[in-house]
Specification:
alpha/beta, 3-stranded antiparallel β-sheet, 11 strands, globular, Formyl_transf_N
């Protein structure tokens, strides 16, 4: 069954994939001497953002690309799981191609839905996929192993897995009475909130805080954590050993037993090494 709706014609998406990304504001800011770690010879990593809602995390990333804080990132595609997703308006305002790929268009066939997503990523020549409030199963194929990041609104392994997303996470945090929660950005595999952790940021839970208040505090940390993780990936500064990720300092080389993840904007192949994708299980991003 065909997707629900495509915001831009397929030919437009394909043409965008063929063109080198030109984030002019990013280049002009990052070229300044004050932008530590900017490498003018490194092309930006072509990035897709998958969303299901209003797109606050998408806006956060767009702002940081525009002002130069994410020097090596070019957001070239937004995929939404429903036509009413507010993130689509933000994509349109930024001139970014977008597509609506709803699981309802593939009833009873999650594999076909995931395949349609992967095909859209392929057409756009994507090197990095960011799940930013994506609330549906996506079976990651081998060619995207080590190239998919998710942001989850808790400190994994607490309050994660099946059924823990959005407000459900923060309500559980308050009900359980924990004193510290936070957010996690991790590399994805095909299990619930399971892949290697890149960044975590804590949030204190004061007595009497409501789930909405916890959610607001956690999102402020998500903005920092997601940008830091995406930036480190794009700069090729993630070193992976087993399931342990180390963020390398600028100019630091990985240890012999570590594999670099990210950095190289390779289309149609693996971007980095060290990740394997397990057999798919139903997974909901946070």
């Amino acid at each position: 069954m065909a997707p629900v709706r495509t915001r831009r014609p397929a030919a437009f998406v394909a043409a965008a994939a063929a063109r080198p990304p030109t984030p002019t504001v990013c280049r002009s800011v990052c070229a300044a001497p004050a932008a530590a770690g900017y490498d003018a010879a490194r092309p930006p990593v072509r990035t897709a953002v998958l969303v299901s809602g209003g797109g606050r995390s998408l806006v956060n990333l767009l702002d940081r690309v525009a002002d130069g804080r994410l020097c090596h990132v070019a957001i070239v595609l937004v995929v939404a799981s429903k036509a009413s997703a507010g993130a689509l308006g933000h994509a349109a305002a930024a001139g970014i191609p977008s597509a609506v790929l709803s699981p309802r268009a593939y009833p009873g066939d999650a594999a076909a839905h995931s395949g349609a997503i992967s095909s859209a990523l392929d057409e756009a020549g994507v090197g990095l996929v960011v799940l930013a409030g994506w609330l549906h199963f996506y079976a990651i194929p081998d060619r995207y192993a080590g190239r998919v990041l998710n942001v989850h609104p808790s400190l994994i392994p607490a309050f994660c897995g099946r059924g823990y997303y959005g407000h459900h996470v923060h309500a559980a945090v308050v009900a359980f009475g924990v004193k510290v929660t936070g957010c996690t950005v991790h590399l994805c595999d095909n299990e619930f909130d399971h892949g290697p952790i890149i960044v975590q940021r804590p949030v204190a839970v004061a007595a009497g805080m409501t789930p909405d208040e916890v959610a607001a505090a956690v999102f402020e940390e998500e903005k920092v954590a997601l940008a830091d993780a995406v930036g480190a990936y794009a700069a090729g500064r993630l070193a992976l050993r087993g399931r342990v990720v180390r963020v390398l300092a600028e100019g630091e080389a990985p240890a012999p037993e570590e594999a670099l993840v990210g950095g190289a904007p390779v289309v149609g192949g693996r971007t980095g090494g060290g990740m394997s994708v397990r057999e798919p299980r139903t997974r909901r991003a946070g």
